Amino acid sequence: MRMVDLIEKKRDGQSLSKEEIHFIIEGYVQGDIPDYQxxxxxxTVFFRGMSLEETVELTLAMAQSxxxxxxxxxxxxxxxxxxTGGVGDKTTLLLGPMVAACGVPIAKMSGRGLxxxxxxxDKLSSVPGFRVELTQTEFLAQVKKIGLAVIAxxxxxxxxxxxxxxxxxxxxxxxxxxxxxxxxxxxxIAVGAQGIVLDVKYGSGAFMATVEEARALxxxxxxxxxxxxxxxxxxxxxxxxxxxRAVGNSLEILEVADALQGxxxxxxxxxxxxxxAWMLVAGEVVPDVExxxxxxxxxLENGAAWKKFLAFITEQGGDAQAVIDRQLRVAPWNLPxxxxxxxxxxxFDAHKIGVLAMVLGAGRITKESLIDLxxxxxxxxxxxxxxxxxxxxxxxxxxxxxTLAEGLKLAKNxxxxxxxxxxxPSLIEEVIL
Length: 433
Hints:
Transferase, Pyrimidine Nucleoside Phosphorylase, Chain A, domain 3; 433 residues; 13 strands; Pyrimidine Nucleoside Phosphorylase, Chain A, domain 2
């Protein structure tokens, strides 16, 4: 086989065979296929698309390109969760202890943030002493011991995805449903998930701008999961304003601590209970989603989820007492953004809030950027809430006065206030099974 022939074949709208797809992925990972040919192939996929059969084979080839985990030693059905990314999305940190406390083990590999969306690993790094890297033996032993571990992605897990994603990022081929779906699902297959719950977000702060785009992506990922024998459930959720009130690493950990003690923001709890309930269904510990929600609420009310979170922090070397005492580092400079008029908050633009938090230091502009774990934004008000003139709409946090001044300029364009009560869309649009 020659790569040039396969580029031409896909360019002309033909389907690639299983052998041809595996040839492409294996050749690219081994360095036999150069970036310029892979970029040309990715562009043909961007314009021509892929059939479900092709996308399934691409997912499988990518999953088999590196290490694969065997979680059978856990002795329980293993369920993984993935979010397509959002602003203030801290659901993994809330769901992990809740779901584990209800009997479904969580062995999760998460990423760092880039751009306006935060990363779970960065948030955990704001806890003093927390180890985001464990050996595979340590990782599995911890899950077996307490039912929960969250670590950074290992170096050789789905190397095809690492190489291909970096290439897509600089060749304008990121926004392709077959390439996105295979990227997400290949990692879930490689870690051995038997059940997969997907939080597919849409709106200004999400990767997919419209619910139609999100639905198409969700359906493709669910179909891939089914074809590969994995129970897969996709929840479409709205990301037109940040989830919860905290955006930023330490700030979000503190909000998670509040939520696990029964003091979480309503929107964060609604999305987390929906996702968590489906994880319990996929984990075969409850018969339906409503029973799952009741079970999760019980884990909050009886303190089991909070105890699990503290055990998880301690087990990975973190200072749980610092979380209990709210002694995580918060940036020393802060500034309130006040409402100029009384009225109802119409909108907090999630994308603009994410960019604002990034500028304040909470996110990375490039992969090499250092982040300020204590920087970020606290929303004093959310869309639909009343604000009096002179009351704070949000509070900005940064370690640098000049950065704070830059954030002030951006903050003015993130929110609007009006006299009418805004009509807010449902947080959960639909569930695709």
